[in-house]
């Protein structure tokens, strides 16, 4: 018998929380390094096609460290995410079977892809925009858009709206309230991590029933 099968669900939850904490700390440590801005761009770029860590945690740390540059950081994060989204679209269009499919399967995104296609077939651009702003992995959306041969112009416009809204709202909150938000996240990280996971799973449930 596989020893992992004997693990209690609570133990798995603790491991997941520790894993999230480790990834959070690895990401946020770039805020104290000279190339933190480049790290933000690269993490946002990678997260759009395959990387599991959202760039928001580093964006938050950088904004707290330099509130006057919050919107500059948001712009860099948005640019990196959009460029990564183009890569994701290309993966879906030209390399779905051997690159895109394993990524989608890793995020259990097959049902989400089917719903994204149904939205686009029914509503066109507005369906694309709806998929871009729902709380599902952006990488699933980018790969699906390429795999289903969605209009690249519609895909990019929806991505610009969705990504800009997401990152500039975060930057705006940090610009307005600063360190207390970061302190809250660090103090209640375990709770925040579970909320993040619930939102992620909730996004797939939303796709299933809408």
Task: Give a description of the structure.
The chain is mainly α and 210 residues long. It has one domain. It has helices at residues 9-28, 36-47, 56-65, 70-94, 96-106, 110-123, 125-133, 138-147, 152-177, 179-187, 189-209. α2 runs antiparallel to α3. It is globular and about 45 Å long. The N and C termini lie far apart (40 Å). The model has no long low-confidence stretch (mean pLDDT 78).
Structural topology:
Elements: H1 9-28, H2 36-47, H3 56-65, H4 70-94, H5 96-106, H6 110-123, H7 125-133, H8 138-147, H9 152-177, H10 179-187, H11 189-209
Q: How many separate structural domains? A: 1
Poorly predicted residue ranges? none
Amino- and carboxy-terminal Cα gap: 40 Å
Count helical runs: 11
- Quaternary state reads single chain
Task: Calculate the mean pLDDT score and round it.
Answer: 78
Q: How much is the radius of gyration in Å?
A: 18 Å
The coarse overall form would be: globular
Give a quick account of the main beta sheet: strands, pairing sense, barrel closure: none
**What's the β-strand tally?**
0
Strand content: under 5%
Which percent bin holds the helix content? over 70%
Helix-strand topology string: HHHHHHHHHHH
- Tell me the structural class: mainly alpha
């Amino acid at each position: 018998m596989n020893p992992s099968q004997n693990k209690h669900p609570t133990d798995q939850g603790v491991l997941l929380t520790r894993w999230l904490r480790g990834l959070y700390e690895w990401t946020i440590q770039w805020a104290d390094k000279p190339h933190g801005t480049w790290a933000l761009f690269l993490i946002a770029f990678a997260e759009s096609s395959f990387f599991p860590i959202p760039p928001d945690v580093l964006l938050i740390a950088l904004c707290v460290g330099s509130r006057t540059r919050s919107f500059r950081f948001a712009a860099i994060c948005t640019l990196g995410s959009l460029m990564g989204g183009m890569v994701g679209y290309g993966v879906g269009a030209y390399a779905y079977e051997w690159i895109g499919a394993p990524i989608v399967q890793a995020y259990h995104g097959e049902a989400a892809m089917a719903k994204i296609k149904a939205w686009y077939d029914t509503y066109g651009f507005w369906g694309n925009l709806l998929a871009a702003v729902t709380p599902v992995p952006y990488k699933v959306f980018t790969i699906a858009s390429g795999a289903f041969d969605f209009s690249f112009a519609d895909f990019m416009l929806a991505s610009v709206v969705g990504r800009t809204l997401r990152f500039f709202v975060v930057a705006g909150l940090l610009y307005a309230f600063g360190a207390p938000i970061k302190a809250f996240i660090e103090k209640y990280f375990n709770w925040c991590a579970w909320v993040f996971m619930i939102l992620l799973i909730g996004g797939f449930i939303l796709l299933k029933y809408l």
